[in-house]
C-alpha cells in the first residue's frame, strides 16, 4: 500500500486491517498481535531486500498497533481497585509492542476496561512508526549495520529510534497527551518499551521473555551461587511448580544435574530466572554496586510490569547494637543517591508497603525460626540511607553522621532507596531486606577474613528469605499487591 507523508514524500506501508471495535479482550489482543506481526514482517522483508539490492525508491514505514477506549460517562469503577479503569470521560489510547510477550497482561488489562466501563475497545494501526532496529530485533537472520556502513543514510529509508518519543512524561505525571489529544491508557509508549527490552538484553544477556513477575535485586555474586543451588533443588523436586532455570546467554536447564554453561564474557548485570509456566517465578539480577546501576536496571525492568521487586543485599550497620549478619527491614528511605532527583523530587516520600513488609517479616520468621520479641535479636526495622559515594567514611564525617543520626537511619547502602524510589515512580511494589556486612562507624570494616566468614554463614539464609517472601507474595491476589498508595490523582488504566 502506498501512502503520502508530507515530510518525506511517498512511502510504502503494509496493508493492515482498519480500526475495529471489540468487546472481547482475547479477540482484541489477537488483532493487536496480527497487526504487529504483519508490520514487523513487512519491515523485515523490506530491510532484507534493501541489504541485498540497495536503496529502494520509496521510504518504508510500518506502524505500531494501538488500543483505544472512549467513554462519556462519569460513573466510577470499583474504588478498591487501583487499576483497570479510566478516571473520567474522554478518549484514551496507547501504542502496543510485542503483544505476544505481553499477552496475558494485555488480556487482563483490556478485559478490565471492557468490564468496568461497559464499552468496547477499538484496535487498529496507530500513527507511530516502528523503528527498524526494533522491528528486526527478533529476526535472527537480520542485524542493523552501524551508521555509515551502508551507502546511504539508514534514516532516509527506514524509521530509526527517536529518543524524543521515549521519555517518561506519563509515569512522571507531567500531563502527557498524545498528538491527537487522547489520554494515555498505559504507563509506557511502545517505543519506550522496545527501547527498554533492547537494553535488558544488552545488560543482562537474557531475553526479556525469560523475566518472571517477581524480581530480586542483589549487589553480590554470592547470592547468585545460592540462587542457582536453590533452583537446582526445585527442579529436582516433583511438584515444585518450577520448570526451568535460565542464565546469561539464554542458557536453559530443566533438570537438577544439567550443566549450565557460563558465557565467555559476563554481562554488566548477570541475571538468572527460575521459571514457572505462568510467569510467576523469580528473577534474580546482580546489579553490582551503586545507585546508577540500580536506576538503570529498574528503568528497564519496569516496562515488563512485574508484580514486585525486592532488594536483598549487604549494608553498613549504623548502630552499635547491631551485629554482623543482622537483618534490616527498611521502613523508610533517606535518599542521598541523587540519580532520581530530576524524575522524582527529593521531597516525595517513599512509603513502606504493608503487603511487602509483612511478606518479608514472615519470611524472616520462617527461615530463622524466630518470631515476636525474639526476632528483634537479629532484625531491625527503620530508615535505610542510600548514598552515591562508596568511600564516604574517608571524608569529614561530621556532616554525614549528623544527617544519618537525625534521620534515625539504621543502615547505609548504595542501591536500596534507588530501587524503592523507582518502584514508587513506576508503580511497582517494592521492599528492602538488607544484611549487615560491616559497621564502619564502630571500627568493624569489611576486611577479607571477616568477609569470608560472613558470606559463608549468612548469604544462603538471606537469599532464602528473599525467595520465601516472593513465594508468599505470589499467593496474594494481584489487586492486593498493587496498592492504591502507589497511584496518583490521574492514573493510567493499565497497571
TrEMBL record:
Residue intervals of the AMP nucleoside phosphorylase N-terminal domain:
27-174
Q: What is the lineage of its organism?
A: Bacteria, Pseudomonadati, Pseudomonadota, Alphaproteobacteria, Rhodobacterales
A GO molecular-function annotation: AMP nucleosidase activity
Q: What protein family is recorded?
A: Belongs to the AMP nucleosidase family.
Q: What gene name is given for the protein in this entry? A: amn
Name the InterPro entries for this protein.
Answer: AMN_phosphorylase (IPR047039), AMP_N_sf (IPR037109), AMP_nucleosidase (IPR011271), AMP_nucleoside_Pase_N (IPR018953), Nucleoside_phosphorylase_d (IPR000845), Nucleoside_phosphorylase_sf (IPR035994)
Q: Which keywords describe this protein according to UniProt?
A: Glycosidase, Hydrolase
Enzymatic reactions = AMP + H2O = D-ribose 5-phosphate + adenine
Top-level EC class as recorded in UniProt: hydrolase
Q: Where is the Nucleoside phosphorylase domain?
A: 272-442
User: What is the protein's known function?
Assistant: Catalyzes the hydrolysis of the N-glycosidic bond of AMP to form adenine and ribose 5-phosphate. Involved in regulation of AMP concentrations.
Q: Which NCBIfam families match?
A: AMP-nucleosdse, PRK08292.1
Q: Which domain of life is it from?
A: Bacteria
Gene3D superfamilies registered for this protein in UniProt: AMP nucleoside phosphorylase, N-terminal domain, Nucleoside phosphorylase domain
Listed name of the protein: AMP nucleosidase
Species source reads Rubellimicrobium aerolatum
What EC number(s) does its UniProt record assign? 3.2.2.4
Amino acid at each position: 500500500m502506498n501512502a503520502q507523508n508530507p515530510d518525506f514524500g511517498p512511502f510504502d506501508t503494509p496493508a493492515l486491517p482498519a480500526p475495529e471495535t471489540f468487546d472481547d479482550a482475547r479477540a482484541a489482543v489477537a488483532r493487536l498481535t496480527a497487526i504487529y506481526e504483519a508490520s514487523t514482517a513487512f519491515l523485515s522483508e523490506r530491510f532484507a531486500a534493501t541489504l541485498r539490492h540497495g536503496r529502494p525508491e520509496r521510504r518504508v514505514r510500518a506502524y505500531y498497533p494501538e488500543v483505544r477506549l472512549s467513554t462519556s460517562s462519569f460513573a466510577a469503577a470499583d474504588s478498591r481497585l487501583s487499576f483497570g479503569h479510566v478516571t473520567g470521560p474522554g478518549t484514551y489510547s496507547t501504542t502496543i509492542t510485542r503483544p505476544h510477550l505481553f499477552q496475558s497482561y494485555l488480556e487482563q488489562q483490556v478485559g478490565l476496561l471492557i468490564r468496568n466501563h461497559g464499552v468496547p475497545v477499538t484496535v487498529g494501526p496507530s500513527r507511530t512508526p516502528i523503528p527498524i532496529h526494533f522491528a528486526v530485533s527478533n529476526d535472527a537472520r537480520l542485524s542493523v549495520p552501524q551508521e555509515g556502513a551502508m551507502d546511504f543514510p539508514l534514516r532516509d529509508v527506514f524509521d530509526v529510534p527517536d529518543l524524543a518519543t521515549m521519555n517518561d512524561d506519563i509515569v512522571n505525571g507531567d500531563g502527557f497527551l498524545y498528538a491527537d489529544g487522547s489520554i494515555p491508557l498505559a504507563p509506557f509508549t511502545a517505543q519506550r518499551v522496545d527501547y527498554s527490552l533492547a537494553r535488558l538484553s544488552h545488560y543482562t544477556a537474557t531475553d526479556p521473555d525469560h523475566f518472571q513477575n517477581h524480581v530480586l535485586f542483589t549487589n553480590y555474586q554470592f547470592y547468585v551461587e545460592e540462587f542457582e543451588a536453590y533452583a537446582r533443588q526445585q527442579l529436582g523436586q516433583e511438584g515444585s511448580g518450577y520448570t526451568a532455570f535460565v542464565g546469561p546467554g539464554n542458557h536453559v536447564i530443566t533438570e537438577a544435574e544439567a550443566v549450565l554453561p557460563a558465557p565467555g564474557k559476563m554481562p554488566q548485570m548477570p541475571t538468572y530466572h527460575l521459571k514457572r509456566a505462568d510467569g510467576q517465578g523469580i528473577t534474580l539480577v546482580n546489579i553490582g554496586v551503586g545507585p546508577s546501576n540500580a536506576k538503570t536496571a529498574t528503568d528497564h525492568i519496569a516496562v515488563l510490569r512485574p508484580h514486585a521487586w525486592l532488594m536483598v543485599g549487604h549494608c553498613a550497620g549504623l548502630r552499635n547494637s547491631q551485629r554482623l549478619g543482622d537483618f534490616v527491614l527498611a521502613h523508610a528511605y533517606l535518599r542521598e543517591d541523587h540519580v532520581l532527583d530530576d524524575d522524582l523530587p527529593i521531597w516525595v516520600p517513599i512509603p513502606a508497603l504493608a503487603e511487602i513488609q509483612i511478606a518479608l517479616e514472615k519470611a524472616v520468621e520462617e527461615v530463622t525460626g524466630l518470631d515476636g520479641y525474639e526476632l528483634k535479636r537479629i532484625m531491625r526495622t527503620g530508615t535505610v540511607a542510600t548514598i552515591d559515594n562508596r568511600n564516604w567514611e574517608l571524608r569529614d564525617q561530621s556532616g554525614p553522621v549528623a544527617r544519618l543520626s537525625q534521620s534515625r537511619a539504621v543502615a547505609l547502602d548504595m542501591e536500596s532507596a534507588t530501587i524503592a524510589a523507582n518502584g514508587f515512580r513506576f508503580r511497582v511494589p517494592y521492599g528492602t531486606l538488607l544484611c549487615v556486612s560491616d559497621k564502619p562507624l564502630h571500627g568493624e570494616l569489611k576486611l577479607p577474613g571477616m568477609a569470608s566468614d560472613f558470606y559463608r554463614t549468612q548469604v544462603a539464609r538471606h537469599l532464602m528469605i528473599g525467595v520465601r517472601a516472593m513465594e508468599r507474595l505470589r499467593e496474594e491476589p494481584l489487586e492486593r499487591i498493587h496498592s492504591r498508595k502507589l497511584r496518583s490523582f490521574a492514573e493510567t488504566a493499565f497497571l
